[in-house]
Write a structure and sequence with these properties.
mainly alpha
Length: about 425
């Protein structure tokens, strides 16, 4: 029974709000210092260091820097104007713009929390000014930000690819269809709510073709960044890690020479935000790797896989059980940490039943993004509610129908491997 003590301790530390990285490291150290004393402490310390010594992990700071540069380079405002020209004339126009902007930004920022914070500052004030309820504005902003990490180059796509030993390129390509479905589902739910409440469009009439074309031309440099990354990787011009560096360079060039909003005094702010973001993510990854080392030594992933297979040998039933588990865990544990902890546990059972790991990865990432919007510990929920000063009770009431829409998409993706794998298979062709 003592081998499960680190897991029990981990959840206790989570519940008393100890930071995720410290919880993982403390739980792992309890095992190596007091339970399994056969390993030298120096070997455990080497494990901490070697966990970060991975070339693919260099992609993480690069893509975090991309999101930071984008906020200072005027890219977000250009995309906002383009999104408004496309759908701002619909009932509930600015709420639809909120979703569309998250979809356009996702391929550039790659971070749900960054997207939620940015839209809370840029778009949310305008929505409340136009008569949208503050709690509804917060709900739409948080729910739409769940789309961002599903679109390449989302950080979670990279992390899952590393954990599951699958192609980063395949994970990137597989994200487009799920993200599109999430956007459509949210817009459908928003449309119903907006008609009932009489939310007005942001434009009195649709933008003219000439106006849309003008906004599109201005947004082209920003829109080309994710497609350039995907095409470069597809044709072997650079690796995912090198793609992050290319994306940083492209964003900087666009910010300086195209939009002319990126200034020298922004460099220190960008570096500070990149270091803070990278430190938080890497600290969690290192803690999770060492915690995973403990689980591997005790064969816990093998035992969990065996238990799941004994419950069912049906692929769809197994995926539904995993979805239920992830949705519950996502209510209490930050999504990225949940993915890092649970993927090594669940993957053996998934592979044993012949489930495509890329399909499974998309299901996991969509699931944890939904968890980021749900109480009591959803990270996007906290981000939006703290910036907009919205009570959690009011937020939960407004976000409920949007969560139903996202869960419907999750179930569709679970039952339709062909839908998720359509683009990756097409490009493998």
């Amino acid at each position: 029974m003592e081998i499960f003590l680190p897991i029990i301790l981990l959840f206790i530390l989570f519940l008393i709000n100890i930071p995720i990285a410290f919880s993982l490291i403390a739980s792992a150290l309890v095992y190596f210092l007091f339970i399994n004393t056969s390993l030298p402490v120096s070997l455990v310390m080497q494990r901490f260091i070697s966990s970060a010594s991975s070339f693919p992990l260099l992609a993480i700071p690069f893509f975090i820097m991309v999101g930071s540069i984008m906020n200072y380079a005027g890219i977000s405002r250009s995309l906002l104007a383009f999104a408004d020209s496309i759908i701002g004339h619909k009932t509930g126009g600015l709420a639809h713009v909120n979703v569309l902007l998250s979809s356009l930004m996702g391929g550039i920022s790659g971070s749900a929390n960054a997207d939620a914070a940015m839209q809370s500052k840029i778009l949310a004030p305008e929505m409340t000014k136009r008569g949208y309820g503050l709690s509804f504005t917060a709900a739409v902003t948080a729910a739409s930000s769940a789309i961002s990490p599903v679109i390449p180059p989302g950080i979670n796509l990279i992390i899952f690819a590393l954990l599951a030993n699958v192609s980063v390129h395949s994970m990137f390509i597989a994200g487009y269809v799920p993200a599109f479905l999430m956007a459509i589902a949210l817009m459908f739910a928003i449309s119903i709510i907006s008609h009932k409440r009489g939310y007005k469009p942001s434009r009195s009439e649709p933008a003219s073709a000439k106006e849309r074309w003008g906004y599109f031309l201005k947004a082209i440099p920003a829109l080309l960044i994710p497609f350039g990354i995907i095409l470069g990787m597809r044709f072997g011009l650079f690796t995912p890690t090198e793609a992050g560096a290319i994306a940083v360079l492209l964003c900087a060039i666009i910010g300086v020479f195209v939009y002319k909003e990126l200034k020298l005094n922004h460099v220190a702010l960008i570096l500070k935000e990149t270091i803070q973001g990278t430190s938080a993510v890497m600290f969690i990854i290192i803690g999770a790797m060492v915690f995973g080392y403990y689980m591997t030594l005790e064969r816990i992933p093998h035992e969990v896989a065996s238990a799941l297979i004994q419950l069912t040998d049906n692929k769809l039933v197994l995926l539904l059980l995993i979805n239920a588990l992830l949705l519950v865990v996502g209510m209490f544990i930050e999504g990225g940490a949940a993915m890092i902890i649970l993927t090594p546990l669940l993957l053996p059972a998934v592979l044993n039943l012949g489930i495509n790991p890329v399909h499974f990865g998309v299901i996991v990432i969509v699931n944890i993004m939904i968890g980021g919007v749900t109480p009591p510990f959803g990270s996007m929920m906290f981000t939006v509610c703290s910036i907009l000063k919205v009570r959690m009770v009011d937020f939960v009431r407004e976000v409920a129908p949007l969560l139903v829409a996202l869960i419907a998409v999750l179930l569709l993706l679970t039952f339709s491997e062909g839908l998720v794998m359509f683009l990756p298979n097409l490009l493998k062709g």
